[in-house]
From TrEMBL:
<keyword id="KW-0812">Transmembrane</keyword>
<dbReference type="InterPro" id="IPR050545">
    <property type="entry name" value="Mycobact_MmpL"/>
</dbReference>
<keyword id="KW-1003">Cell membrane</keyword>
<keyword id="KW-1133">Transmembrane helix</keyword>
<feature type="transmembrane region" description="Helical">
    <location>
        <begin position="307"/>
        <end position="330"/>
    </location>
</feature>
<feature type="transmembrane region" description="Helical">
    <location>
        <begin position="523"/>
        <end position="545"/>
    </location>
</feature>
<feature type="transmembrane region" description="Helical">
    <location>
        <begin position="636"/>
        <end position="656"/>
    </location>
</feature>
<dbReference type="Pfam" id="PF03176">
    <property type="entry name" value="MMPL"/>
</dbReference>
<feature type="transmembrane region" description="Helical">
    <location>
        <begin position="178"/>
        <end position="197"/>
    </location>
</feature>
<feature type="domain" description="SSD">
    <location>
        <begin position="200"/>
        <end position="332"/>
    </location>
</feature>
<feature type="transmembrane region" description="Helical">
    <location>
        <begin position="204"/>
        <end position="224"/>
    </location>
</feature>
<feature type="region of interest" description="Disordered">
    <location>
        <begin position="711"/>
        <end position="731"/>
    </location>
</feature>
<protein>
    <submittedName>
        <fullName>MMPL family transporter</fullName>
    </submittedName>
</protein>
<feature type="transmembrane region" description="Helical">
    <location>
        <begin position="230"/>
        <end position="254"/>
    </location>
</feature>
<feature type="transmembrane region" description="Helical">
    <location>
        <begin position="371"/>
        <end position="394"/>
    </location>
</feature>
<dbReference type="InterPro" id="IPR000731">
    <property type="entry name" value="SSD"/>
</dbReference>
<dbReference type="InterPro" id="IPR004869">
    <property type="entry name" value="MMPL_dom"/>
</dbReference>
């Protein structure tokens, strides 16, 4: 099938290339409009959680009491209430249009707070709070953009904080981060591709396909926004993922094409064979990556589920682009693939025999004592993951922004310079189950809530129908362990008789999100593992290899998770990476890294085992086939990993902290997987398995021989009793 695809696209290369060029131009014009098409906001919350259910009740007649926007005014030498500073601010606030605003409170119109709460301890700062009519974060951003300029006051510094401002600032930084990441990564990618292939022509092909897929990803995303709400935060991950995968896949195909040419095949045959072998690897790798992202459908939050939809679509597009455009370009290029050669290390130097290669010798070294090697490497990976035991999970908030972002500055200023932080509000919704709630009992319940550690006050602020609203002010940081304990204690407090209570607010939302992810992540991991197991069986006809692959991939992830906790929660390398540690790790991080890194690990696993399988079908020697397979793929896997590190390194340069977490985590996971796992742990475990690595029960083996996706046409070696693993490893 894959040979036929290569043959067809090579024969119809003219139309394939024309279609790709037209589509790329279209993507550059229409596809880039996706930045204005996101309607899903950030979408971190679980729609079924207690906090979201409380928010739905508050959207009704009971009404919300929240400060969606906090506008901070500052003067270096004037009093906020009596000088011209105060007069200018008051005049400005009086003139702010009220469309879309449910409440605007300040020193001059204090609402439920005392006037003094709006003035800083040194009288040089004051703030105004805004509650919008809508609680949808994207609609709040739209409302903010319409009135933002109306808050400016002459001679006064103005900063914008609160959830609406934070969302607006994250959206703005997202676009600039993508542009900066591409400006940094593309030149480095081109240089590395030239160094890897030692030919400018060969280097340009993966970059051309990668650019095609990256721009095409915008079209895919824009189409998706027509059918479902897509979180505005997915754009960074998806575009960089599309570019990285396309370059990875092109690297596999171009390398195999060159091998076939150098082995004496004509151009048409080389295209056909490269697509039949490396193209098959690309297809199975794409399926593995897509399966990993499909696991995100287990999560109800819009951020994760829309990331899954978008990523599956983009991965599929990357596979199709690699299997259609690239064979056509290879047919056009032909033997010119080696033109403009870069003579690094001597052009005419004879290639070193495979059995003298560094990775061949390393593989044999670990296979001489496979059990000791395996245990030692596993111990190292588990040790790297050990810091994860003390992790404190958080949800995104203003802490994700750079230190000079308005929302982060406002948050710090309110916490340090004011007696009351207007952002630290929670709400308890008391719902009568048999009739209206008793006001006295609600008051008594509020008094009990006020006794919980971390709660500054709890006051009934509204009664409507059967329901009541209690506004709570709290003091601990919303992402701290103290805030988590506070939420649990508040929810454990018995509500009035004949009533239920629902708690909402940032600390409660954080607890709900972390709980939802902790509950769903094992199911996602199980789904990805089981389906990946099935895909690998289709690829190789073995029951033990898929199990080994899943376990080894999880070890890579464990090492990455431990490193992230050590770096971002504990603050190590914060100066080098340019961030402020908050003593926590975003709870969305493990989900995304499992989805991306597990898929990429399968990518390299399929590529490596495909070459091992080729040699095994020829020789039947389980040890030599592993050593040769590793030697033949080591350079391309490490090169692909290096290129991917450069691409996802764009996340590391992101000014948004949870994107930086994803970047660092992926870099660590990819490097560990491509070196320690593929180069050392895989040969050690394959030696332990010996011939059992390719074992399947007789009925399944017969089924796979008939229906499985074989890469080569060589018949499998005759079945033989598998010797003891250690004896085989020492042959």
């Amino acid at each position: 099938m894959f040979a036929a695809i290569g043959k067809f696209t090579a024969r119809r290369r003219k139309w394939v290339v024309i279609a790709a060029v037209v589509f790329t131009l279209f993507a550059g014009v229409w596809g880039t409009g996706v930045f204005g098409s996101f309607t899903g906001g950030a979408g971190f919350d679980d729609p079924a959680s207690e906090s979201v259910q409380a928010d739905k009740v508050l959207d009704g007649p009971l009404g919300r009491e929240s400060n969606d926007l906090i506008v901070l005014y500052e003067s270096k030498n004037k009093n906020a209430t009596v000088d011209s500073f105060g007069a200018a601010v008051r005049a400005t606030l009086d003139d702010v249009p009220r469309a879309g605003i449910a409440r605007l409170d300040s020193f001059w119109h204090p609402g439920t707070q005392s006037p003094g709460a709006y003035v800083s301890k040194d009288n040089r700062q004051t703030y105004a709070t805004v509650q919008f009519t809508s609680d949808d974060d994207q609609k709040q951003v739209e409302a903010l953009e319409k009135i933002k300029d109306d808050f400016a006051a002459d001679g006064v510094t103005v900063r914008y904080g609160g959830v609406a401002a934070m969302t607006d600032q994250v959206n703005t930084l997202t676009g600039s981060d993508i542009a900066r990441a591409e400006m940094l990564s593309v030149p480095i990618l081109l240089i590395l591709l030239v160094l890897i292939f030692r030919s400018a022509i060969a280097a340009l092909l993966p970059l051309a396909v990668g650019s095609f897929v990256a721009l095409g990803s915008f079209v895919v995303l824009r189409v998706l926004t027509m059918f479902t709400e897509i979180s505005s935060t997915v754009i960074n991950v998806i575009t960089i993922l599309g570019l990285g995968l396309a370059i990875d896949y092109a690297l596999f195909l171009v390398n195999r094409f060159r091998e076939e040419l150098h082995a004496g095949a004509d151009v048409d045959t080389a295209v056909e064979r490269a697509t039949a072998t490396a193209g098959r690897t690309v297809a199975f790798s794409g399926i593995a990556v897509a399966i990993s992202f499909a696991g995100l459908a287990f999560f109800p939050s819009r951020f994760l589920s829309s990331m899954g939809y978008a990523a599956v679509a983009v991965v599929a597009f990357a596979v199709v682009g690699s299997l259609t455009l690239l064979p056509a370009l290879l047919r056009y290029t032909g033997h010119g693939i080696d033109k403009w050669r870069i003579p690094l290390g001597g052009r005419n130097r004879a290639p070193k025999p495979e059995k003298e290669g560094r990775w061949y010798r390393t593989a044999h070294a670990v296979m001489r004592k496979p059990l000791i090697s395996s245990l030692a490497i596993v111990a190292v990976l588990v040790g790297l993951g050990a810091p994860l035991l003390g992790v404190n999970w958080a949800r995104p908030g203003e802490w994700v922004l750079p230190s000079d972002a308005d929302a982060k500055v406002v948050s710090k200023t309110l916490a340090s310079d004011f007696g009351t932080n207007p952002a630290q509000i929670m709400t308890s919704v008391v719902q009568g189950t048999t009739g209206p709630v008793d006001r006295a009992e609600v008051g008594s319940y509020a008094a009990e809530l006020a006794k919980v550690d971390g709660v500054a006050s709890a006051t009934p602020t509204a009664f409507e129908g059967n329901d009541a609203r209690i506004t709570l002010r709290y003091t601990p940081d919303a992402m701290s362990d103290a805030a988590q304990s506070m939420v649990h204690d508040l929810r454990a407090t018995a509500p009035p008789s004949g009533a239920d209570a629902l708690l909402t607010g940032m600390p409660a939302s954080r607890v709900d999100i972390v709980g939802m992810i902790g509950e769903r992540l094992p199911w996602m991991a199980l789904f990805v593992a089981v389906v990946s197991f099935f895909v690998l069986f289709l690829a190789f006809g073995s029951l033990l290899l898929p199990l080994k692959s899943v376990i080894l991939n999880l070890l890579s992830l464990l090492a990455a998770f431990g490193a992230i906790k050590w770096i971002f929660q504990d603050g190590h390398l914060s100066g080098l990476l340019g961030f402020e540690p908050i003593g926590a790790v975003d709870a969305n991080f493990p989900v995304l890294v499992v989805a991306i890194a597990f898929g990429l690990a399968m990518d390299y696993e399929v590529f490596l085992l495909s070459r091992v399988r080729e040699e095994w079908e020829v020789s039947g020697d389980p040890v030599e086939s592993v050593a040769l397979g590793i030697q033949r793929t080591a350079k391309i896997i490490t090169s692909a990993a290096l290129l991917l590190v450069v691409v996802v390194g764009g996340f590391m340069a992101s000014s948004i902290l949870f994107m930086k977490m994803i970047g660092v985590g992926l870099v660590i996971a990819v490097l560990v997987d491509a070196t320690i796992v593929r180069g050392l742990l895989v040969p050690a475990t394959m030696a332990l398995l010996g011939k059992w690595a390719w074992w399947a029960p007789a009925p399944l083996a017969r089924w796979w021989s008939k229906y499985g996706f074989r890469e080569s046409s060589a018949p499998p070696p005759p079945p033989a009793p598998a010797p003891a693993p250690r004896t085989e490893a020492l042959r």
